[in-house]
Amino acid sequence: MFTFAVKHNTVAGDMDSLTGQYMVHGLVNYVIASLNHHPEKPLAQLEDEFYSSFGAAKEPVKKYFDYVTDLTINKGIRSSALEKEGLAEGGIGLARRMIWVGDSLFTPEVMAQCFKLIDDAAAAPGLDPVSARRVLMLRHGMKHLELAMAAQVEYRKWQKGAPAAGFKAAYAKLQQFRKSIEETGLINIGLLQYYDNLSWRKILQARPARKKQ
């Protein structure tokens, strides 16, 4: 779409969908930013440049992104879970409410595979310090996802009548992790809090029942 627009006399652009998850949007952000300066570059070249920034971990990082892309864009975007929630058409509703069905895509087995691919990248022979920190960024992204999915699972249980304590404990772990990586600049905590309130407003704003006198 970008290159088509450039060929048809684009004069300006605006990049939206900055959801505060810089740990997982690196490839998308790099491609879009690069196209603004080099619209003639093919996508394959831009992807190769991005993966090359991980040094010796280039190939395992590419496998990780290929795996997650296939899971979400190629398969997940057409999943029955999305259709059930009325999100199959995508758009802004999908960006805001993906967490509602995220746990059906990122199962414990899937996340275990993601962590394995990241561990393979971290163990790449000859990995330099800068590339190692970039791989750690990917691990932070997966850890955040793991904790968010754990909270969503507990939220589902609460919806079915379970005590709120399970969700509150899981959400506290998620918040604690966010604070632990806040200084890295990898996430926008304020924006994530906004999305939390969209997804879990009922339980986050629920008042405890009054005790009978």
What are its keywords?
213 residues, mainly alpha, 11 helices, globular
- Report the major sheet: none
Helix content: 55-70%
How many helices does DSSP assign?
11
Residue-averaged pLDDT = 85
What is the C-alpha radius of gyration, as a whole number of Å?
19 Å
SSE topology string: HHHHHHHHHHH
Euclidean distance between termini CA atoms: 64 Å
Q: What's the total count of β strands? A: 0
**β content, as a range?**
under 5%
In quaternary terms, these chains amount to single chain
User: Structural class of the secondary structure composition?
Assistant: mainly alpha
Unreliable stretches, pLDDT < 50, 5 or more residues? none
Shape: globular
Question: Quick recap of the structure?
Answer:
The protein is an all-alpha fold and 213 residues long.
What does this structure look like?
Helix 9 runs antiparallel to helix 10 (165-180). With 213 residues, the chain is mainly alpha-helical. It has eleven helices and no strands. The longest helix has 31 residues, at 129-159. The protein starts with a helix and ends in a 9-residue tail after the last helix.
